[in-house]
Amino acid sequence: MSKIIDPVFAPHVLHAPEFSLDDFDFDALEQNVTELKGKLDKKPKTAAIILAGGTGERFGKEGGKQLVEIAGKPILTWSAEAFDAVGDIGLMVVVCPQERHEEYLRHAIDPFPFVTPIVMAPAGSVRQESAFSGLEYVSEDFEYVVLHDGARPLVSPELILHTINKLKGNIDCDGAVVAHPAIDTLKVVENGVIMGTPDRRVFWNAQTPQAFRAGIYRRAHASALSDGFVGTDDSSLIERMGGRVLVVEGKRDNIKLTVPEDYALLAAAVRMLYLRTAKAND
Fold it and tell me: Domain range holding 72?
């Protein structure tokens, strides 16, 4: 029986031929899959921070994953276009390594007709530092801030707007996070031994976008910095302060590009999106 290797825990296997991106021909799909149009309200209340600072080590491709193309557009462009199509988004802050600002602008931003103002912010050494860096470029004129992984290209304007409105419509809440219910059986494991099987109905897989009241989000970052706390996502900073964060059910195809297998899933989802769009236009 062959040994099963998990590429997440054994990154070196990403360089093996069976995981090579060159084997995929999904970029050949050049048709416009969606016709998103930029919108900008007269008085937008929300700023978006798009986190594109990851090194892409697990993805195993030189230069990282943000500029990898699907259907002729970089992954980062797909994400930015979705936020550009939400009128309440008055600013997009793209967070990436400072030495790559010009490269990202040249390939993923400047060639496309964005209407929302876009600024670049330097990435930190970890996600939380990158989020804080992006937050420093958001003026206090914005009441809300929404965070998104630049490597989640299939997020839709409808989901972004729904998440923001979920927060706006609940004055006693501090944030709203997109997630989907866990569908696999979960096990609690210690030292390779199963210690229990929790009820999966209370577990959700967190995604992005994650929307927060800007003032509270700033205080959460200040508190985390003061206490030396590092969270696994933006919501955890609010949660540790006792804040109330709502969940917004998302879709399983809101995939984050992490390892090469994800690219195949994303490309397949794009093909299905194209087919549905083509059928609707017939």
Answer: 25-178+205-281
